[in-house]
Amino acid sequence: xxxxxxxxxxxxxxxxxxxxxxxxxxxxDDYWQDVEWTGPCVxxxxxxxxxxxxxxIIAIGNNSVRRQIAGRVAHPFGTxxxxxxxxxxSVRLGQGVVVVHRAVIQVDCWIGNHVIVNTAAVVDHxxxxxDFAHVGxxxxxxxxxRVGECTQVGAGSVVLPGxxxxxxxxxxxxAVVVSDVSDYAKVAGNPARIID
Length: 196
Known about the structure:
- By secondary structure, this protein is α/β, with parallel strands linked by helices.
- Helices cover 10% and strands 24% of the residues.
- The protein has an eight-stranded mixed sheet, covered by helices on one side.
């Protein structure tokens, strides 16, 4: 498997792949000259001709950057799901998804392309998580929640059942979201309110 990115999230992705018995055979980074990587691969600039049939994970935590890179990558995308994660058989996973240690994704969820479901996050039944979204460590999406494209759901936050969060939103760490959130909004607090 190839990894695009060489920061902290890339180290987590490499750890997940290792736990799944998969080898990281190549590492791309736009700033490869400045990268200090302790793994067996030497970081290089992205090359669409290098190992063309090998699957790739974009291991960058920033949603917008991940989306931008996905638009110019020629490799097929893989997924990385840690063995301690629980993903129901009915879940539909997009390409490039990363599900981190001890995360739970329940029945009839739809997880879009290049989504991160981070450490110990819970995505309960029938949730829809849009492309390039990130469900932070320990966050809880209760049943039937909708999360829009490129939205960040902060660490330890809770989204109540049936709430809809728009695209490119930011939900602050520890927030409790009790009502719908419009596109591009930033919310924080308990109950969550618009901030800026």
